[in-house]
Amino acid sequence: MASTTHNPSNFSGYEGNQTQRVFTFFKENTATASMAERATGVHHKNICRIKRKLEKAGLLWQVCRGRCMRTGHYAFYLTTDPNKAPKDGQISLFDNE
Fold this sequence. Notes:
Blueprint: H1 13-28, H2 33-40, H3 44-56, E1 61-67, E2 74-79
Antiparallel strand pairs: 1-2
Helix pairs in contact: 1-3
């Protein structure tokens, strides 16, 4: 699933509907998986699976870690908005990279 666009439309069927709902939710909100579960109606386990697929495709990022507003536990806040994606923190050995 090497998509270069910010639209996971290559998913199909029921899984695709869930993926699209999760993708759209995280595009409009920076939230935890538990918060997304409540807002989208997609089960937490499915959100975790979808999260990994979107991460591998370069479409979802962990923005920060903080207390979840739903559970009160520390969790990662996620986004699919490329404008909110963290900058690459890797140090380059060469100036031209």
